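hi support,

uploading two proteins for the ticket. first:
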Amino acid sequence: MSRALFAAAACLPLLTGCVIYADDSGETVMVRMDANSSITAEAAPETLRSVRFADGALVARVDSNGCTTAADFAVSVAEGDPVDLTLSRTRPDLCKAIVPEGVELRWTYEELGLTSGQVVRIANPLRL
């Protein structure tokens, strides 16, 4: 019994690892749309540095370690009056760059299923 435990403990470091991949095919934007949209614990709402609507798109500034893209986020769109939008990071930025100002990410109204002039409420917390 103790040999089995020792062997299992000795093999444990061999089971960990790091996978790095590159996706040169472009970004994929994930948008969830339903009347009762909810964010799970594994995809908590991202704290935003700023958010605005400009040139037909939602523009959000978020923290970044150098590799953050719009494809790293899911945007939850809950229909109502106003429409509730929540941005949630689905993939962590594990890069090591120093990006003190963060990065701006954009989602077009079309990607979000919105029309120009539609009343929208952003549900994410803001860092002042």
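and the second one:
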Amino acid sequence: MRKWLKGGIALCLTAAMLTGCSLGFGKNGSDNENQARTLKVMYYDESSFFQEYGMLYSALYPNIEIQVVETNQIQNTFMEENDNDYDKALAAFIEKEQPDILMLEPTQLEKLGVEGKLYDIESYVTDSKYDVDGLVPGVIDAMKGYGGGNLYAIPTNFSTQALYYNKDLFDEYNVPYPTDQMTWTEVINLANMFPTDGDPLERIFGLKMGWNKQLSTTVDILANTEGLKAFDENTLQMTIDTPAWASIVEQAQSIMKSDVLFYDDMLYGGGGDGVVYFEQNGDYYSQNPFFSGRLAMSLDGNYFVNQIEDAKNYAQNPEDIIENWDMVTAPVGSQNPDSSYYTSYYNLFAINAASTNVEEAWKFISYITGDEYARVKTKVSYGNLPLRTKYMELDTERNYAAFYKLKPMNQTIDYTKIPERYQYEYYNVSSETFNKVTNGDITVAEALAELQLRGNELLATEKMTKEEQEKYWEEQNQMYMENSGSVPMIR
């Protein structure tokens, strides 16, 4: 089985050089390999760019000099010069640096496109020399969705989650296997078919769907799957005090009353009930209930495949590690059965409409989103999945299509417009409020009304400058130390 997470950049370079690849770039299929050119790329920082893309590309095309303009300048310099408005700062950065290639977020595509700052690359993508059919299904449609109907960018990789299941446990207890595109209600119904009794150190669990046993965590999972938002980013008004949200909270309460769920805090001798479920002297792998055969279903990321393989290779008792497992798509919303909240595209590369080097820019993008790059990068993808499906299937026994069957739910939020106090404080407000529901102190209706009010108060606060954010965290750390007599909290 290949490893997505293992390897090193030297392997990339070696593999690429050995390919002797011959790629036709440009609409006319011509490319003068001996002509020296400069390509300016906007990216997080120069070092990470060359590690991820530049070293490999430069080895293949030594006549191309790549210059990286680092986006950390936006926060460090341009924000202060542009009234702390990120959109203005980004526009000023692009205008000053004039990169040929822009690395962008999904929320930036439509706005920059409408402003005429991005080159529509659809004619290049549909050219017969670019293998669009080998891409993850739906990626082009997703990019057009982000771009308001126009194709401005292509990502280089993506991540997602799937529902992993233990086939032996399903067979033992005569429970039908899960299937693709099940809702959370259907998955919970399957989980409830597994027993909840027995010795705590041996009993099995039906499902892991969250990290901890808090109502707010389960509510967030269910709400995200259904595409519900707690606030409207355009009006900066809360939208949580609604019948739809009330139904989600009531469903979360019902789920948590069941004894079939596993939570990670159970690994450390608890889960709120004081019961020890796992031997504390076992190794990491034996304490994972899915690895050790005590968990029927687990919602986890694509990286979980490598973790299962590591367990078989490095556990103290590898013979006890699960063998007969498979996966289906992550649960879907009742109104969005073809979409997944858990699928995200990363590093979207676009071309500056003002670039005088469009052909060379497309040549670069088409390579890092192409077949040769995907083949090599499967060995060092750092937890992300390759953009091309044929390098995703590690064997023929399992349903790897679960990783790319669902398109991403268009739930992107432009947090540059959201007040920092909301971003910093609402999570704790939500947790505290839902804890009061769990404790019986307030009703669901009262909780949602309280969150509507307190959330609106946070959304009404002003955006902070960089200095104000630093001062805020200094004050928070000081308060934490005064209240706990402990070391400063980690931001």
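thanks. also noticed: DSSP finds 18 helices and 13 strands in the chain.
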